[in-house]
Predict the structure of Hydroxyproline O-arabinosyltransferase-like domain-containing protein.
Amino acid sequence: MPSLTGGSHAGLVFLHGSEHFPGAILLSYSLEQRNNSLSKNVENSFSTDPVLPMPRHLKKVEGGNMLFHVALTATDAPYSKWQCRIMYYWYKKVKSMPGSEMGGFTRVLHSGSPDNLMDEIPTFVVDPLPAGLDRGYIVLNRPWAFVQWLEKATIEEDYILMAEPDHIFVRPLPNLARGEHPAGFPFFYIKPAEHESIVRKFYPEDKGPVSSIDPIGNSPVIIKKAQLEKIAPTWMNVSLRMKDDTETDKAFGWVLEMYGYAIASALHGVQHILRKDFMIQPPWDLEVGKNFIIHYTYGCDYSLKGELTYGKIGEWRFDKRSYLRGPPPRNLPLPPPKVPESVVTLVKMVNEATANIPNWDDER
């Protein structure tokens, strides 16, 4: 891992080079000079094209430990806390089921100080970015949190699942990675080729075609710990440089950090296996099927006739953003008839978790 050094100059963070960027300062930021470009003197040590051939039949060719550590980044806000509690409940329930290769669990808390869930959920506290550096885009703390956690924590498993608080495990999750190929979920809205002029600011032509960049974010991804240790600092650096570039920030918006991970992975020559069965996203995905995770990032709004009214508050709704200041109540009403199975399953699983988590209503 690269060494992280806090210099004596106020407002500066320095991240020194890895084996891929020998002796280079990957990140240099001054709160007094936030509009200056971040270091562009990143040395190129790649000698091969980053496009890796995908084996026709990917099999578990490795022996030994295939367990993966489940890690999610979180804040100490009530909105984050209640989602983490539900997520951890379902992790514990499916972890020991047949077919699971789930190992330990860590909530990487990037608030800089412990909170009142430390005894309930295994937690590792890391520092947030320096004040003002995220410019209101709190997700920029995610790669920085992983850099710190990977450097400082003892992680027994050889693989890591990067997850999020609004993930619910529907069934036991095996290790979907194969050798040097991590597993990721293809997002329909991550389209590097449609933004080639922007992407080339961070992924030069000598690295290969833009098609080398996978249409993914960092989550869900199952990846070798050793690979993530190399990618994470680059992911942080690229994401911060993107946020510092007005054109890129405007084009990528709330998915900027996802592009940051996708580009950083490609810079390290890492190609992901794209698993559509990794997760579903109600209300657009209608059935749970044999998928592994429900991601409830979208609001679910329906009429009492079971008709989707997306973009308009429904007569029945479940939207996590309705509960920014505290947890949803126990025993939420189930959706009306004709609402897709995925939405019904989501609400039932939320209700089961809240019914069984102690002190749910104390607004922890």
Summary: The radius of gyration is 21 Å.
